[in-house]
Each structure stands twice: as C-alpha cells, then as structure tokens.
C-alpha cells in the first residue's frame, strides 16, 4: 500500500505471527490494498497467525467487516489463524444494531489477548511469555 502521507497501516512480524495495525479509517480501495498486502505477507513470511488491530477505528462499515472476514478465510486457506482485536464498544454496538455478520471471525479485546488466542490455537500446551500476572 503506497501513500504519500502518514502510514495508514503497519504490518510487523513477531515470531510466527504478523501484527497488522490499521491506524486510520481506510476507503474501499485502501482496504482492498491492505487485504492484498497482508495476504501476500502471510505467504512470504510463512506466518502461522495474524492479529489485525482495529482499535484506531471509530467506524467499521459493511465493506470493512466483509474484508476482514475475507482476510481471515484466505489466511486460513494459507495456513494462518486470524484474530481481530481492539473493536471499540461503540463500533461493536453499531455492528450488532446494523446486523453485520462477522461469521466465524475470531476476536479478542486487545493485542495481548489476541496473541494469547493464537498461542492457544497454534501451539496448544506451550507456555507463553505473555502469561498474565495477578
């Protein structure tokens, strides 16, 4: 995804996972470019899991929701599990009120919980360095 201003998204590698953060609202063309970039990186990096952080978004429309579902399904077909994190409360209320179907899309509260979900699904029984302390 090429931009002339601040980065709209970032995709970082952390061990066998990719962490993709959406920093601002994306139009349909930008969302589609993000989808293609992320799916390409899954193969190139041989990623086993993907976390998509949408915490910066105060709106998630039907196209965005459908694109996230598509990313998750394509990633699954390429051998990676996807977890979407950071859905804001108002966004979640709006999605439910509008009847947006997230299908089997996995979600978690934040990045830490998203990584924990991936650890449990991809390497069951493995202890994680992100274990919570109480």
Structural class: alpha/beta
SSE string, helices as H and strands as E: EEHEHEHEH
CATH topology: Transcription Regulator spoIIAA
**Major sheet summary line:** 5 strands, mixed
Integer-rounded radius of gyration:
15 Å
- Tally the structural domains: 1
> Spans with pLDDT under 50 lasting ≥5 residues?
none
| DSSP E strands, number | 5
Average residue pLDDT = 89
- What's the N-to-C terminus distance? 41 Å
Quickly count the helices.
4
CATH 2nd-level architecture: 2-Layer Sandwich
How would you describe the overall organization of this protein?
There is one protein chain. The chain has four helices and five strands, in the order ββαβαβαβα. The longest helix has 18 residues, at 28-45. The radius of gyration is 15 Å and the shape is globular. Helix 1 packs parallel to helix 2 (62-77). The chain has one domain: STAS domain (Transcription Regulator spoIIAA, 2-Layer Sandwich). Helices cover 41% and strands 19% of the residues. The protein has a five-stranded mixed beta sheet with strand order 1-2-3-4-5, with helices on both faces. It is an alpha/beta fold and 134 residues long. A hairpin with a 2-residue loop joins strand 1 (9-14) and strand 2 (17-22). InterPro entries: Bact_StressResp_Reg (IPR051932), STAS_dom (IPR002645), STAS_dom_sf (IPR036513). Residues 7-118 form the STAS domain. It comes from Geodermatophilus maliterrae. This is STAS domain-containing protein.
Short description:
The chain has helices at 28-45, 62-77, 89-97, 111-122; strands at residues 9-14, 17-22, 49-53, 81-85, 106-108. With 134 residues, it is an alpha/beta fold. This is STAS domain-containing protein.
């Amino acid at each position: 995804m090429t931009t002339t201003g601040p980065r709209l998204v970032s995709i970082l590698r952390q061990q066998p996972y990719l962490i993709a953060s959406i920093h601002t609202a994306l139009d349909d063309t930008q969302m589609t470019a993000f989808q293609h970039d992320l799916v390409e990186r899954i193969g190139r990096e041989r990623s086993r899991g993907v976390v998509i952080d949408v915490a910066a978004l105060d709106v998630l429309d039907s196209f965005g929701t459908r694109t996230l579902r598509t990313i998750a399904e394509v990633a699954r077909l390429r051998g990676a599990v996807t977890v979407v994190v950071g859905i804001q409360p108002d966004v979640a209320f709006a999605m439910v009120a509008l009847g947006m179907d997230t299908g089997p899309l996995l979600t978690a509260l934040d990045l830490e919980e998203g990584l924990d979900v991936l650890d449990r699904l991809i390497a069951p029984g493995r202890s994680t360095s992100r274990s919570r302390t109480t």
